[in-house]
Specification:
Blueprint lengths: L9 E8 L5 H6 L4 H13 L5 E5 L3 E8 L2 H10 L5 H7 L1 E4 L1 H11 L11 H15 L5 H20 L9 H12 L8 E4 L3 H14 L4 E4 L3 H11 L2 E2 L5 H7 L2 E4 L19 E5 L16 E5 H15 L3 H49 L5 H24 L5 H11 L12
Parallel strand pairs: 5-6, 5-8, 6-7, 8-9, 9-10
Antiparallel strand pairs: 1-3, 1-4, 2-3
Length: 421
């Protein structure tokens, strides 16, 4: 394939996400760091001007310039175990303005599986850094990403799109913070260190500042791996009953098929809060009959997260208004970029006319004031080009025609239009 020229390419966003692709298909198109580097290398060989690659558990996407989207689709499929046929069944392809809008939606959390989840913006930043290292960025992509980052920051600061608990692990920690006094002094026991247990553990450490967290897991080495990361205490499964007796908060996330915490295991003469984060329930319902025990089940915490997400929807219009404002700024910059070479060529043409005229007058006029003539003519040229620039800036969709007319009238030698609608 020949080197791509920006005159003949468009900006595309191609990819797949949780909306149409199930976990198995997303897995086939998932990209690790080595695969991303491989795609960038191939793209560079093919003369692709700029490219951005993201791959998370919920989406895999490529943003870039190509003569046809198939160039980007093939780059993705050649570096994964997914086929073009599989991709086409679940894929989306956006072009130019639609691709720009899509990146704004993704980067601001409006297209996330959990509305308002801003984790993707750090992925986009990392993707740009990787592409820049390979020389696969351009001013358009850099300006676009910076605009998306700006929109993301403003939505975080000016709306409540990302407020409240949206995961069970975070909701459980929020519940503890809201309902337990002096939580940093309490003994916390986490029973079960699967995915939910790990996430809960991280949230506990981050938000409670509590050093008294003990981990118990049926397989002790799994608990020790997590404990080592956070410098926590690990106890044997055999110590479970004794540990429950001394704890203030028990979090159960064992993932067993039947209850692992029964009424008989609990002998507590002080208040005990139990959070059951498991499906199916891992704490027997009759535990709530114990006088000092408060039992909170996953279904309650799930409702908290559902309510949070429902409340977040109210802030979508506000977020979209911020996006539109910043997108207008980006589009204005893009329009300016379209005609900047024409204005530059016009200025050069006028300067040529000026220089020829001054040279003529210099020969004709005695005591010709070189300094004043230069100042006056340069200012006239600046005013003329500013008028043309302002006209092109407000051309409202007819920029290309206006550029063509200017080039024809002034016989500008080069075709200077560099961006395609």
């Amino acid at each position: 394939m020949n080197n791509l020229n920006s005159l003949h390419t468009s900006f595309y966003a191609i990819g797949l996400s949780y909306k149409k692709a199930d976990a198995e298909i997303r897995g086939k198109f998932s990209l690790d760091d080595a695969a991303k580097e491989s795609i960038l290398a191939k793209a560079k060989e093919q003369g692709v001007e700029a490219l951005l690659i993201t791959s998370t558990c919920n989406r895999t996407e490529i943003y870039g310039f190509a003569a046809h989207p198939y160039v980007l689709i093939k780059l993705l499929c050649d570096s994964t175990s997914g086929s073009v046929e599989e991709f086409e069944k679940v894929a989306y392809v956006y072009k130019n303005k639609e691709a720009i809008s899509f990146m704004f939606q993704v980067g601001t959390g409006l297209d996330s599986q959990i509305l308002g989840d801003f984790e993707i913006i750090s992925q986009l930043k990392a993707a740009f850094k990787r592409s820049k290292k390979q020389g696969l960025t351009n001013p358009f992509l850099e300006r676009l990403l910076n605009s998306v980052i700006q929109a993301s920051k403003r939505i975080k600061n000016e709306t409540e799109l990302s407020s409240g608990a949206t995961s069970v692990s975070f909701a459980s920690v929020q519940y503890i913070l809201n309902n337990v006094e002096n939580v940093s002094d309490k003994n916390i026991l986490l029973f079960g260190t699967g995915k939910i247990g790990r996430n809960t553990c991280e949230n506990l450490i981050k938000h409670t500042k509590n050093p008294h967290i003990t981990l118990i897991n049926r397989t002790k080495d799994k608990a020790e791996k997590i404990a080592g990361k956070f410098n926590l205490v690990v106890k044997d499964y055999a110590d479970l009953q004794a540990e429950i007796r001394t704890t203030d908060i028990l979090i159960v996330a064992t993932g067993a098929q039947r209850p692992t915490i029964s009424k008989e295991l609990i002998y507590s003469d002080k208040k005990l809060l139990i959070l059951d984060l498991s499906i199916p329930k891992n704490v027997s319902d009759d535990v709530s009959e114990l006088e000092n025990v408060e039992l909170i089940h996953l279904d309650y915490l799930s409702k908290v997260t559902d309510d949070t997400l429902e409340r977040r929807k109210a802030f979508i219009p506000q977020a979209e208004a911020i996006i539109e404002e910043i997108k207008r700024g980006f589009n204005a910059w893009q329009e300016t970029r379209k005609f900047a070479p024409t204005i530059s060529a016009l200025k050069k043409k006028l300067k040529t006319i000026k220089d020829a005229e001054l040279d003529y007058q210099r020969k004709k006029i005695e005591n010709f004031d070189e300094y004043q003539a230069e100042i006056i003519t340069s200012r006239v040229i600046q005013k003329i080009t500013t008028h043309f620039a302002n006209h092109l800036r407000s051309a409202n969709g007819s920029t290309n025609e206006a550029i063509d007319l200017i080039e024809k009238v002034f016989r500008l030698e080069e075709k200077t239009f560099t961006e395609k609608e």
